Structures are given as structure tokens and as C-alpha cells.
Amino acid sequence: MARADATTRRDTARAKINLTLHVGRVIKDPHDPFLNYHPLDSLVVFADIGDEIEMFPADKTTLSIDGPFSLGLTVGDDNMILRAIDAANLPPEYITLTKNLPVSAGIGGGSANAAAILRMSGVDDLHIAVGLGADVPVCVLSQTAHMTGIGEDVTLWPDLGQLHAVLVNPGIAVSTAEIFRAFDAQDDIRDTPRPQQLSGSLLERALDGRNDLQPIAIAQAPIIGEVIAALGRQKGCTLARMSGSGATCFGLFESAASACAASKDLQTQHPDWWVMQTVLGDA
After folding, report:
1. Residues annotated as catalytic (active site), given as ranges
2. pLDDT tens-digit profile of 153-196?
3. Is the confidence at residue 198, as pLDDT, over 80?
4. Closest to 15 in 3D by CA, of 131, 99, 117
5. DSSP 83
6. Residue 234 confidence (pLDDT) above 60
7. Contact 194/22 with Cβ under 8 angstroms?
8. Cβ neighbours for 216, distance < 8 A, ≥ 6 positions apart
9. Could you give all domains of the chain from N- to C-terminal order, each with its CATH number?
10. CA 92 distance to own-chain centroid
């Protein structure tokens, strides 16, 4: 194995937050019955926290994982980091992942990790990115954006500023595949997702939308509803909602002070929850 030196590259795989997530009827791949796609329309922002990744040239590709949420993660072929290395046809690398974000949490952890590998390697082909997952293209850019199609159409929305927020995960993992299966079983699904509001402030655009997967996730894991309610009761909270397919939820707050107070209160009331004050969006 090579040793870390000037060739070492470092990046932060920032947490992805779906301020809105509108989903359309499933599109089945005519060539592969096991592949299904959902058209999306989502307002996506990124937090100022994330997993930390280092990589440097080596004789053999190796992935080492540590950090507070490393337990249970595998380094098999299905790992998103190793898939990104293969998809980009990169030479052997030694990679360390410090897993700071909860796993299967709806905040793009695996997608953001894969995107960080592509960024560090200078790979900006979004076709490669979307082949790894619907969230990977927007995570490669890691900026406030409007995501449509099956994730491959990303329009950056600069100059919308930032929002003070608190992220909460109740310590459960939900299955994205199961959430989407339950979504597909509904009768009243739009063929195309509800359009995202294209004007106004970042907060106004978030307030106008919704998360179509939130009711399904709450039905499968009622504690998600408890988290949203707990956030909504906090002073200064302007919006409480689930991100992605869950189980992480976010609260948007009027100020850094109100977000800080809410974070401390939630940590005191629910010491078994992961609670993190953060800033969402681009400076």
C-alpha cells in the first residue's frame, strides 16, 4: 500500500437535503424488468456537515471505514465508493471513509460518498454519475439545485442563500426500496411529479412544496411523524419535513440562535436521537 503524501486528495461528502420531493408514476425499463425509475422534481440543498473521505494511489484498491456510524457498513462490491471507482475506471486507490452521517437516512450518504470520489478524480460526466444512482449527479455538484428527470437533469440555483436548520434522525434505518414499493401501490399517483415553484426565496420555494414519500414513511415508521412534530413545536421553526425517503427530518429556523436552542432542547428531550444543528445552502 502506498503512504499518504502530497498525492492525497480529501473531500467532504456533504449531507443532501431534499427540501421538497415530488415523485411521479414509476417508469419500467422495457429491457430489464428489475429496473424501475421514478421521475422526480426536487429542490435540493446541502448541509455544512458530511462524511470525510481521503484517497491516494495504491497498489490495490482498498476501503477503510471508521467514524461514529461505521458499524455495520460493508466494503463489498455493492459499496457506493467502490462502485464509483469501478464506474470511473480509476486506477487502484486507498480510500478512508469517516462515516459521520447516519446510514440509510435519506440524506444521500452513499450517493454523496460516490460523488466525492468522482469529484476528487476529476470525473464530471453526469451519465456516469446517474448510473450509480439518481442522487449522485446532484451530489457531484453539491450546490443548491433543482433536480428533475430520474436525477440526471440538474439545474443549479445560485444566489438563493442559506437557511439555519436542525437535522434529526431517530436512530432507525428505512428501506428506500420498500418506501417506493408502497408509493407505487397507491391508486392516485401523478404520471409526472408536481412541478417545483421556480421563483421566490429558498424558504418560499421549500414551503410551496412537499415530500410525497413522507406519509408512506410515517405509516411504516411512525416515529418519523414524532420527529417532525417535535421539530415543529420548537420556537422559531418555519418548516419541519422529512428528507428523501427518510428517516432523517429537518427543521428550518428563523435564526442561528433559534436553531441552536432547538438543537439543545431536542438533544435533552431525546438523548437517543441524532440531532445536528447545521446550515443549508450556498454562502
Report:
1. 16, 135
2. 999 999 999 999 999 999 998 999 999 999 999 999 999 999 99
3. yes
4. 99
5. H
6. yes
7. yes
8. 179, 182, 183
9. 9-156 (3.30.230.10), 162-281 (3.30.70.890)
10. 27
